[in-house]
Design a protein that fits this description.
It is a single chain. The protein is of the alpha/beta class. It is 52% helix and 14% strand. The protein has an 8-stranded parallel beta barrel, surrounded by 6 helices. Strand 6, helix 10 and strand 7 form a beta-alpha-beta unit. The radius of gyration is 18 Å and the shape is globular. The structure holds flavin-adenine dinucleotide (FAD). Flavin-adenine dinucleotide binds next to strand 4 and strand 7.
């Protein structure tokens, strides 16, 4: 309920005006690694020193025209080049609407292909984030096309709150691929998504097991310590090799837990977003936790 309200309010123009104006000083900086690639690389180096890999996300979604989509593609080519030059342990995550998906499928496909080709040339990897449900099928379709061209260099996010995901996962896993399992961060109707948290949580654990049993490399992307405990038990009982999975968390959330997992010898990765276009990302982070909104509101009142 809280989540629905915040995600709804995020579309309100008055609210967005206030948050865009004051958000960075009042909490967004916790979740965003600065405005520039340089600052994100600095954060990456620091995380690498703690034994944690990174996935870099240049913030932005739903670009308005072809020029913006091409610029977004170019920014990812630059990130991959910079990862190569600075020899940090990082790959990239991107959103297809930033590559122009809401404008034209051909445009998004061409931009995605260019970025994944560059990743393949550098023996690196691109993760396609999953956005809201109108884009699910088309995102899966583009992922499959690009995977056929560059297997091993592209992976997809699948969301546990969607009823369809177990079926998508079984179909997509022939042959096995690389998936990140998340709960899902958008406002979705009950026609497509489980409305209750316990159902999402159970489906999350079921999907992680399904993904591993089907032979996929699987990113377990959650901050939910109860779920991490359930998954660890399953991993140990079934002797799943450590190369087949990694734990992932968002920048600014529960780093100590991830660090502990890294110390125990598990592969770990932090999702590090950077850039000017942080608003939509920040609203989703607030929606995930009531105390994030209280923190923001208190800071606003104190001004
Ligand atoms: C690496 C990564 C990539 C992701 N990519 C996508 C994607 O492509 N598409 C998509 O829809 N979603 C994505 N998400 C977001 C995901 O769907 C969830 O919205 C988010 O992870 C919160 O769910 P949770 O699994 O942590 O569980 P929750 O039940 O929401 O949270 C469990 C606990 O974690 C802590 N926590 C969670 N979120 C926050 C927060 N924002 N601030 C402070 N504490 C918090 C709280 O202690 C909370 O009680 C991604 C998440 C991660 C970690």
């Amino acid at each position: 309920m809280f989540r629905e309200v915040v995600l709804g309010l995020g579309n309100n123009s008055v609210v967005s005006g206030v948050v865009k104006r004051y958000g960075m000083q009042m909490g967004a900086a916790r979740f965003v690694a600065g405005a520039s690639l340089e600052s994100a690389i600095q954060v990456t180096r620091d995380l690498n020193r703690r034994g944690i890999a990174v996935t870099l996300d240049h913030l932005g979604e739903a670009v308005k025209d072809e020029g913006e989509a091409l610029a977004a593609k170019d920014s990812y080519l630059t990130i991959l080049q910079e990862i190569q030059t600075s020899a940090v342990n990082a790959n990239v995550s991107l959103k297809l609407t930033m590559m122009g998906l809401a404008l034209s499928m051909d445009l998004a496909r061409a931009n995605l292909m260019a970025v994944v080709k560059q990743a393949s040339d550098f023996n690196n990897f691109v993760r396609i984030d999953m956005e809201d449900s109108p884009y699910t099928a088309i995102t899966i379709g583009l992922f499959e096309e690009v995977w056929r061209a560059f297997p091993g260099h592209v992976g997809l996010v699948l969301q546990a709150y969607l009823y369809r995901t177990q079926e998508d996962l079984s179909r997509l896993s022939v042959p096995p691929k690389n998936f990140r399992i998340v709960k899902g961060a958008y406002r979705e109707p009950v026609a497509v998504a489980f409305p209750s948290k316990p159902d999402v949580d159970d489906n999350y654990v079921a999907l992680v097991r399904q993904s591993l049993e089907l032979g996929n490399v699987t990113a377990i992307a959650t901050h939910d310590e109860m779920i991490i405990g359930r998954v660890l038990k399953y991993l140990r009982q079934n002797n799943i090799p450590k190369e087949q999975f990694e734990f992932q968390m968002l920048y600014g959330v529960k780093l100590a837990v991830l660090e502990q997992l890294a110390k125990e010898g598990y592969r770990t990765r932090v999702y590090v977003p950077y850039g000017q276009d942080w608003y939509a990302y920040y609203v989703r982070r607030i929606a995930e936790r009531p105390s994030n909104l209280l923190f923001f509101a208190r800071a606003l009142i104190d001004r």
